[in-house]
Design brief:
Length: 233
């Protein structure tokens, strides 16, 4: 079974939302699926309780029981780049530990969906040049790229695609998230498709709930390689 990354052109493009949709989609196919967020930052405080929205979303919407130990390796309270958030806590993000965790999970699950943090070049350590892109490359897993449809997306998307291509990372497809049907958004999507006509596109409209996608098959085009196999086939 294939495992893959969900990565974004930047922060707040909806990687967790898309990861959760894909998790539920594949779980409904009968596959044992785990989402894995190697690094998350920005704790959310509600009264006396603190949680992290990314992994909380996984746990809330998964159709299968998830182990908290399997879905995350590093969590830091400050909403900042991983390298700085870790430094503030006196911690060090180990690339080897993340890769070892991915290797372990791929042996335990039919599908592991690794979710990136921020954009591709987000740094993971304060005194080295290690980035998320390095980890993706070393994992040898393909990627789905999540982008927005608003102003600036053409440049951000094409640069991200070039970065993935330069590292030899297979691209499964592009998901344009939070699409609102404005003239500029329509033009942006048409322009991207003109530049990269051979890459599968999925458009996800704004103001949708996770459950509202349960009866749709919008991800079929991205999942057409081997991800649609059931565990019994």
């Amino acid at each position: 079974m294939d495992h893959f990354w969900v990565v974004g052109t930047g922060t707040d493009v909806g990687k967790t939302f898309i990861t959760t949709l894909m998790m539920r989609y594949l779980q409904r196919k009968g596959l044992k699926v785990v989402p894995y967020k190697p690094v998350q930052t920005g704790a959310v405080k509600k009264g006396n309780k603190t949680h992290y929205s990314d992994t909380t979303t996984y746990l809330t919407y998964s159709l299968q029981p998830l182990s908290p130990d399997d879905i995350n390796s590093y969590s830091f309270p400050t909403p900042a780049s991983p390298h700085f958030a870790a430094e503030l806590e006196g911690e060090w993000i180990s690339g080897a530990q993340i890769l070892n965790k991915i290797d372990h999970l791929t042996k335990e699950y039919d599908v592991v969906i690794c979710e990136g943090a921020g954009g591709l070049y987000v740094p993971l350590q304060p005194y080295t040049s290690l980035t998320l892109l390095d980890i993706i490359q070393r994992s040898k897993l393909p990627a789905v790229l999540v982008t927005r449809s608003n102003l600036g997306t053409i440049n951000h998307t094409l640069l991200s695609l070039e970065a993935l291509k330069s590292r030899g990372i297979e691209l499964l497809g592009i998901i344009v998230n939070q699409y609102e049907h404005s003239p500029i958004e329509k033009s942006n999507v048409q322009t991207l498709q003109r530049f990269i006509p051979s890459i599968p596109f999925v458009i996800v409209e704004g103001n949708r709930t996770i459950e509202s996608f349960d009866d749709e098959t919008i991800f079929e085009r991205l999942m057409k390689r081997e991800l649609l196999r059931t565990s019994g086939s």
